[in-house]
């Protein structure tokens, strides 16, 4: 039983069209699946990733129209990192952000890696992180039709930062229940706060890290647009996911049971600070129901929703994603 790294991160948007424009046309990711929230099929669930949606490259968004803005605080996934090939790519992105008026900071360092923090139009807290000094879990394959040149393209998810009031119970879940090990740390950018602690699993590296920030100066986060709903961690297959379910039952952690999301199977639970974790299988993947050359161009529904297609499509605001 081994957690292999980050599988995906799921966040919230209030505006699917603007979200699609930013993550595809500005960040250059591929929309690999245009679907719906399986728990509320009246709204979109958009999946952005590398060329084929490899595990570890997938950044997803639930559309919640009229969602209020996120009030930042603890018990949150406070930052999502996106990997780029090297330090030179960060310079490209800094210039791109300046040209397009994207809210961003200067290039700085996070441990031994260079990074550039930035925000999407809804205030989603993001970091581009350089793979220059990175080892471990490999990145994905850039899409050849991306507006961003391949040598600078985003190649997958990097570390997620969890922000909590008391790190102790979260550390216990990461290390005693899951398979993370604590490594180095680096200084917080907030004065009078503890260093940020780094935990890694599997082959390690940016694609297999959780960064844990302890903040005593913040209230509990109120989640809305521009916030992160959950982080999912990779497990090999269905057999291993069953073992993880048994493990959670053994240590008496309330959980969802195994849920078939069609593109992968999932198991959800909350760690003691209230952050939602998911364990997800690497397969079967996003090419299960669409040709690789046409991923994300039409509305994809899992089989159990297919007989409701007309009803579902009638309630969705049209979103044109077909390539010309």
From TrEMBL:
Residues 5-131, 156-282 form the VOC domain. InterPro entries: Extradiol_RC_dioxygenase, Glyas_Bleomycin-R_OHBP_Dase, Glyas_Fos-R_dOase_dom, VOC_core. This is Ring-cleaving dioxygenase. The lineage of its organism: Bacteria, Bacillati, Bacillota, Bacilli, Bacillales. Keywords: Dioxygenase, Oxidoreductase. It comes from the Bacteria. One of its GO terms (molecular function) is dioxygenase activity. PROSITE patterns: VOC. CDD domains: PcpA_C_like. It comes from Cerasibacillus terrae.
